[in-house]
Amino acid sequence: MSSRTIRRFTTAAYLILFYTYLFLPLLFMGIVAFNRSSIPQVTPWEGFTLKWFHQLYTDAQMWQALRNSFIVGGAVVAIAVPIGLAGALFLTRLHFRARDVFYALLVSPILTPGIILGISTFLFWDRWFHVSGGLWTAIMGQATFISAYCMLLIMARVQRFDRTQEEAAFDLGGSHLQVFVKITLPFLRPAVISSAVLAFMQSFENYNTTLFAIGFQQTLPIYIGTKLRVFISPAMNALAVIFITITIAGAVLYEYCRVREGRVKPKRSRKAHDSRHPDHYRRLPSGRTPTRGHT
Fold this sequence. Notes:
single chain, mainly alpha, disordered C terminus
């Protein structure tokens, strides 16, 4: 047996074990969500049912937690993305001695445990502004570290920007606002959109910071954690199946759009090439070759 065969066998065995470890719990949750048994188990199988999805649908507390998650996530995006954009432009455009210090300060919330962020946010707003724990404190607690993620993501894009485009716009009489809106921001749009998606996902699934900052209210992760702490209901497995289905559908839709866009781009480039070259020769129906300039 050659070394190449051993390497291939080892790689295949590792991939099989890895994907089994990754997807087996998801498969288990999917089966339990449709089992009639009130105990989350695969065996014994007591019959197919959709009652756990109906129980989840009629759970008003779950819907309230889901609404809170969307409210907090949207507010975090509205706060974290502009802060991240400003921090990225500030650190990449200005050069001063304390730049590394400012960078360390802006990135430090990522390295701080979520429990510390949640408790400190709750105490700060409660003692200094007399704002009790709720959605606002959860938003502030999450924005402190999610804005750092947005800044790092946008910085990677800013460092690839050619500043001569802005200088040319200034020479043509453009104001700072016009240059930013028409030149800088369009170039940074992919990074800004990616940071917004990342910020929403980080906020939606956050548990540690939100748990200590939100007070008596609940977001969806806190609702799920509370339910699992009291009793593991199969309705939670039904909720997991819904999220898995949405994730898979989103991934398939994204891949379809990407493949379709990849097929359309060559056609557009060929059409643009032909439109830029009107002298392109085409065969007439009679078999005659048109003269130069014939369209």
